[in-house]
Design goal:
The complex is a heterodimer of chains A (447) and B (484). With 447 residues, chain A is of the alpha+beta class. Chain A has 10 helices and 19 strands. The longest helix of chain A has 17 residues. Chain A is globular, with a radius of gyration of 24 Å. Chain B folds into 2 domains: 227 residues, PmbA/TldD superfamily (PmbA/TldD fold, 2-Layer Sandwich), CATH 3.30.2290; 247 residues, no CATH class. In chain B, 22% of the residues lie in helices and 39% in strands. Chain B has 10 helices and 26 strands. The chains are: A alpha+beta (447), B alpha+beta (484). The interface between A and B is large, with 95 and 83 residues.
């Protein structure tokens, strides 16, 4: 891992090499060790190391960005020169805002767990061996990946701002497949690899895969659904994506546009962006070096706050909320550490209280049908069941859903009390299980 | 040491450490992206990266290490890491990996490029984008105008322990624009030449003038505004005509992915999914109607999925996937082909130096048929015609899909009667392709670039291509995205 001292030296060299009026330099990257298994054996075992240096310079309002993954001596000077060249030949960015003054930066001291990065491929193979053996003995097929690694983000600008954060990350994703179309899934994401209970997670999925054999087709229609956290994940990704990007909001393209302060969801729905929470851990500053704070996005069903970076904030007359993305950040500011707050029922209680409904382990390949209505479609995957009289009964073939999130999060029947952490497309997410009424399935898979 | 010597050092070191096979790829990538948005430069970014990916077979198991540092000592450390990883994998293998045979090749290859895009000035590129932007913003009702160019230049030396040494340089260019119209209840977008960034090809800057971007900007912007007041796509079973990038994406999702042999073998079961095209279906399964012919062709000049050699050193080739509607071939690499007693058809590709090669699409092309587009429309009684994609979703075996387009044209009694918004359709892959009753001829055929195909763990993004003209499908469920 590039230490704080080393990062500071590299960034200072880049700043010193820049003749621009203003310069921001970002160093990010780390190492990833991924052990991938399939058909009950390790099929891919990889180590990746990657650091990127990104330089953004401004001559007046002419802005250029360049990046590279090599930054020794002449290469560092070359990338700075390249950013300057881009800026000099560009046109003025009318929304350019001066870089941030130095400010005290938060550091999260528990984010880097040495045990995670010291965890060797040999350790991982030893953890996986018993589950792969057991899987084969039960005539199941296991596939998945056990990953550990570290990441860092450090920023310096020509006004003297400096920020640094390093953190570790580890994850286990696991698919158990049984004959006769049985399939099940479990996953766990953390910054501390010791928290991953590989065997317990695999055992749970193996048992569920056997239970999921011989699925039948259910009639499409509106059902009460109990969504495991691994299914809620997809819905919350789109709730966030379609609602809380500040640029899209300012252009009236989000479902939240014009609805700040309005209650549009069930009063039990609260969504918060919080990089300091262990389940949604991330750097406590954004890519402009703006310190972050926990930001409520939805509170008791009411839309509370939008996200801003310095560029958009200046244009809209508000302060940055610390949500700038990596330059040139063409999609504008965005929340990257969101958590849907938990409720008071266990997953078992959500199922037990359901007379007739459908249990969904995962939603898969979801995509936007209508951005303004927040309508999303996708498929179920890895274990879909009928719920009858409070019990999981008949396994079901995978089903296609089409649902407006405006309706789904207004139709809340219950919220799980266990909030699980995930790696999403745009950062970390943490969500509980949900029970929703009147959830629309519109088709069934053929296999 | 130069890059080739470093790659050879990695191979020699791996063999000395007990590897039975090793390959190394040293890559230099240069990338530039430019975006103009609502009359303003939204971003100019240039990126350069270098590094080496080393893949080794030790005791019959794979190990891989990617490293950006090309110092001799660091290369040796990376090889040690790859070998150690392979050894850790080996005791959990059922049987050693075997690779289909290949002759050693020593050669070089370059993609066609008339005008090196990185030699064209930024001023000229921005001027072209601002010209488009001005036209888009000149149309009343356009809330958001976006236009952009993307350029890649990737140089690679591939060396393996069987004596191959292959140098390749591939230059790729992409360009496109979109106009967005917004009301309090609706957002409508129109793009050109295709959704999600435009058209992409293995070509230099010479691609851009051929796309007629400025000539189409006014029409596209007007269509975006018109969509706000257009009627919704009707619901029901109708005839569907697909063209352009929508048909390309239909081929990509419902044919390209299910024929990836690693999916069939379960290698992607934990992420991208498996495939309904199981081994028992090869040469027996009627995937589509008899007029459906699909090839995997990495040799198409200009295709975004074209190359000289794949990332295992197998020469680019054209192989049948669907012949007269019957499923006849998979996409394979040396390991997956050997497990099926076949030879690789050159489909192993990796994103950059930092990923191990996996089975990938090349250019998956639906070969042209005999029809004129006008004749296909004229013989449609009740249909919808969609060209540009807005939304896509498909299950993990690639059977149940739902797609949405930016704009639909409603056809009644052989005539286009009006524009519809939010067109969507759904189907089951083999039923859908078996309902195909007409494919437009060579005159309408074009290879579209798909620059964002995600697969693998850790995920890799590949740039692939799809040749299509227009195709017509019967009894398709349309207007399906708005459940009540």
């Amino acid at each position: 891992m590039l230490s704080k001292k080393k990062a500071q030296e590299i960034l200072a060299d880049a700043i010193a090499a820049s003749p621009a009026d203003e310069t921001e330099v970002i160093l990010s990257g780390g190492k990833t060790f991924s052990t991938r298994f399939t058909n009950n054996y390790i099929s891919q075992n990889g180590a990746q190391k990657e650091y990127d240096l990104t330089v953004r310079v401004a001559f007046g309002q002419q802005v250029g960005v360049a990046s590279c993954n090599i930054f020794d001596g002449p290469e560092l000077k070359r990338v700075v020169a390249q950013a300057c060249e881009a800026a000099r030949h560009s046109k003025a960015d009318q929304d350019w805002t001066a870089v941030l003054d130095p400010v005290e930066q938060p550091e999260i001291d528990f984010a880097y767990q040495q045990g995670t990065i010291d965890y060797t491929p040999h350790d991982k193979a030893e953890r996986l061996a018993p589950i792969l053996k057991r899987s084969a003995e039960r005539e199941l097929t296991s596939a998945g990946m056990l990953v550990n690694g570290d990441q860092m983000l450090s920023i310096m600008n020509s006004k003297g701002l400096f920020a640094y954060q390093a953190w570790t990350q580890a994850s286990f994703t696991y698919t158990a497949m049984a004959q006769r179309q049985g399939s099940a899934w479990s996953e766990f994401h953390t910054h501390d690899v010791r928290e991953i209970e590989v065997e317990a997670l695999a055992e749970q999925a193996m048992a569920r895969a056997l239970q999921a054999r011989d699925p039948i087709a259910a009639e499409p229609g509106a059902y009460t659904v109990v969504l495991a956290p691994t299914a809620v994940l997809e819905l919350v990704e789109f709730l966030n994506y379609l609602g809380f990007g500040g640029l899209a909001y300012s252009e009236n393209r989000t479902y939240t546009a014009g609805k700040l302060g309005q209650q549009i969801f069930d009063p039990r729905i609260s969504l918060i962006d919080d990089p300091f929470h262990p389940l949604t851990l991330g750097p406590g500053f954004d890519y402009e070096g703006q310190p972050k704070k926990a930001l409520p996005l939805i509170e008791n069903g009411v839309i509370q706050h939008m996200t801003y970076d310095r560029r958009l904030g200046a244009k809209m007359g508000v302060r940055s909320t610390g949500h700038a993305l990596m330059p040139p950040a063409t999609m504008g500011p965005f929340p990257t550490n969101v958590r849907l707050l938990g409720g008071d029922q266990s997953l078992d209680e959500l199922v037990a209280s359901t007379e007739r409904g459908i249990y969904v382990t995962r939603l898969w390949y979801s995509n936007v049908v209508d951005p303004k209505q927040a309508t999303v479609t996708g498929m179920t995957r890895d274990g879909t069941f009928m719920i009858e009289d409070g019990q999981l009964t008949q396994p079901l073939k995978n089903m296609r859903y089409n649902e407006s999130l405006l309706k789904a999060f207004a139709h809340v029947e219950g919220i799980g009390n266990q909030v699980c952490s995930f790696q999403g497309y745009f950062g970390r997410l943490a969500v509980p299980a949900l029970k929703l009424r009147n959830f629309h399935f519109t088709g069934v898979s053929a296999d | 040491m130069n890059e080739k010597e470093l790659a050879q050092l990695a191979i020699d070191t791996a063999l000395q450490m007990g590897a039975s096979y090793a390959d190394a790829r040293v890559i230099r990538l240069q990338r530039e992206s430019l975006e103009v948005r609502n009359g303003n430069v939204n971003g100019i970014k240039q990126h350069i990266e270098m590094g080496m990916g080393i893949r080794v077979l030790v005791n019959g198991a794979w190990g891989f290490a990617g490293n950006p540092d090309l110092k001799k000592s660091k290369v040796e450390i990376a090889v040690q890491r790859a070998v150690a990883l392979a050894k850790d994998s080996a005791h959990l293998y059922h049987k050693p990996v075997e690779l289909a045979r290949r002759k050693a090749i020593v050669t070089s290859w370059k993609s066609p490029c008339e005008q090196e895009p990185f030699a064209v000035s930024l001023e000229r590129k921005l001027e072209a984008l601002f010209e488009i932007d001005q036209i888009l913003r000149g149309v009343k009702g356009v809330a958001l105008s976006e236009s952009g160019f993307d350029f890649w230049k990737e140089w690679q030396i591939f060396v393996n322990s069987e004596g191959s040494a292959i140098e390749q340089e591939i230059i790729q260019t992409g360009a496109g624009f979109s106009a967005t119209a917004v009301s309090d209840t609706d957002v409508q977008i129109r793009s050109f030449p295709s959704s999600f960034g435009g058209q992409f090809a293995s070509a230099g800057y010479e691609l851009i003038p051929t796309l007629d971007l400025t000539a189409n900007a006014q029409r596209i912007a007007e269509e975006a505004v018109q969509l706000l007041s257009a009627k919704n796509c009707p619901s029901g079973e109708k005839t569907l005509i697909l063209g352009g990038s929508q048909l390309a994406l239909q081929v990509h999702e419902s044919c390209g992915h299910p024929v990836e042999f690693d999916r069939v073998l379960g290698h992607e079961a934990d992420f991208a999914g498996t495939s309904f095209l199981t081994q028992d279906k090869l040469k027996h399964f009627q995937y589509g109607s008899e007029i459906v012919n699909i090839v995997a062709d990495a040799t198409v000049p200009g295709g975004l999925g074209s190359f000289g050699y794949d990332d295992e050193g197998t020469p680019a080739q054209c192989s049948d996937i669907i012949r007269n509607g019957k499923f006849v071939g998979y996409l394979m690499g040396r390991e997956t082909a050997e497990s099926f007693g076949m030879e690789s058809n050159g489909a192993m590709r990796a994103e950059g130096y930092n990923h191990t090669p996996i089975v990938r699409m090349t250019n998956i092309n639906l070969l042209p048929g005999e029809h004129e587009l006008e004749e296909m429309i004229a013989s449609t009684k009740d249909g919808i015609w969609i060209n540009d994609n807005r939304s896509w979703s498909i299950d993990d075996k690639r059977l149940n899909f739902q797609f949405g387009g930016e704009l639909g044209w409603e056809i009644k009694d052989g005539k286009i009667v009006g524009m519809v918004k939010n067109p969507t359709y759904t189907g089951i892959t083999p039923q859908f392709w078996n309902s195909c009753d007409a494919i437009a001829n060579q005159k309408h055929y074009k290879v579209w670039g798909t620059p964002n195909c995600g697969k693998g763990q850790p995920m890799q993004v590949a740039r692939v291509g799809h040749g299509v003209s227009y195709a017509r499908f019967n009894n398709v469920k349309v207007g399906v995205g708005y459940a009540e």
